[in-house]
Amino acid sequence: MKGSIRRTFAATVEVLPEVRTFLRERAAASGLTGEATEDLLLAVSEACANAVLHSGSEDFEVEWRDHASAIQVEVRDRGTFRRRVRVASVEGPGGFGIPLMTALADRVEISEGTATDPGTRVRLTKRRADAMRAPDE
Amino acid sequence: MLEIAATEHPRGLRLTGEIDLDTAAQLTAALEPQVVQGGDLTLDLAGVRFIGSTGVQVLIRTAESLADRGRLVLVNPGRGVRRLVEVMGLDRLENLEVRT
Question: What interface predicted TM-score (ipTM) does this complex get?
Fold first, then answer.
């Protein structure tokens, strides 16, 4: 791995622009294409929005990992994962966060925090456009 | 942060900033009277740097509320907006139009 940078944010909606600034800076430093940057920005924002809205955690951590063939971004909170399946005819449109993550990232791994074992971890992997190998871990 | 300015020709809103969890309610409030009035509604998105799923929900609800009373027209969408529209297939909504 070439490098890893992590930042901790308070779990409030007001910090979300700061998270995006952090991600844009890291994406530029990693030499990502504009398209890959947009995809990761959106996918990670959805993970952070879930941490802020649903986890009950006071803060969350975002870690940017620069691998030779892929970028991984991990969002970790200290709360619980909301186990829900949203039904549009019951609740209206929404629940797009996780589907969006899977559409925009090449791999999505979610380790769900529970009441007895809190801490949800969402790891989003985006292969570098010119690299098709699995990330070197 | 999201700045919202009303436009007359075409009628709608010019948006500048980011449409996220923090600002989506502000957008909903600005759209409400326009939706009540009916007719085509144009959102100029040239200044929108980010839109997430919360913002998209606002757009979907707006198009649904307008229904057969008008179209929701998105003009000057940036790369992020275009990507979301593509991934979510929003162009399939009957009265939502994206002008690139």
Answer: 0.90
